[in-house]
Amino acid sequence: MKYLNKLNLVALLMAVAIVSCDPLEDTFAELDANTDTAISADMVLTLEDDDYELLEDAPGGAGAAQYKNFDSPDEPRTLIPVILDSKFPHLGNGSSALVTYDYYSPIRVNNEISHTVTAQEYQDMGQTFGNFNDDGDIIAAANFLYPDAEEEDLLTLTYDYYASGSVSQRTSKVARLNGFWYISYEPTQDDYRFMGQAYNNFDSRTTGRNRMGVLLTNKYPFADEGDVKTAVFTYTYVPSGGSRQYEDFLVAYEFDGSAWVGVEDVTAQSLQFGNEDGTWVPDNTIKYVLSGADYSTIGAQYAGTAWGDNLNTYGNFSRTGGSTSWSDDLMVEALGFLLNSGGFVTTDGQKYVLTVVVYNGATVTEDWSLIRENGEWVLND
Amino acid sequence: MRKQLLVLMTFVLSFATAFAQSGVVQGRLLDAETGEGVFGASVLVVGTTKGAVSDVDGRFRIANLSGNVTFRISYIGYDQITIERTVSGDIDLGDIELVPNVIALDQIEVIASVAEERKTPVAISTIKAIQIIERASNQEFPELLKSTPGVYATKSGGGYGDSRINLRGFNSENVAVLINGVPVNDMENGRVYWSNWAGLTDVTQSMQVQRGLGASKVAVPSIGGTINILTKTTDAKKGGYFSASTGNNAYSKLSFGLSTGLTEEGWAVTLSGAKIQGDGFVDGTWFEGYNYFFNVTKQINNNHILSLTGFGAPQKHGQRESRANIQYWRNAPEPLKWNPDYGILGGEILSVEDNFYHKPQFSLNHYWTINDKSELSTAVYASYGTGGGGGNLGFSNITAPRISGTYSPIDFDALVAQNEANVDGSASVALRASRNDHKWYGVLSSYSNEINNNLKLLVGADLRWYKGIHFREITHLLGAEYYIDNSDVNQPNKAVRVGDKYSYYNDGIVNWTGAFGQLEYTKDKLAAFFSGAISNTGYKRVDYFNYLDSDPNQTSDVQNFIGFQTKGGVNYNLTANHNVFANLGYFEKAPIFDNVFQNFVNDVNPDAENEKITSYEIGYSYRSAVFNANVNLYRTQWKDRAFIRSLRGAGGEDFFANLKGVNAIHQGVEVDFVYSPSTNFKATGMVSVGDWEWQNDLLGVEVFDGQTQIDGPFDLAIAGLKVGDAAQTTAAFGIEYNIVPDVKVSIDYNYYANLYAQYDPLTRRTTDVGQGTADESWKLPSWSTIDLRLKYDFKFGDFDATLFGNVNNLLDTEYIADAIDGSNHNAASSSVWFGQGRTWTGGLRLNF
Question: Å from A224 to nearest chain B CA?
Answer without folding.
Answer: 30
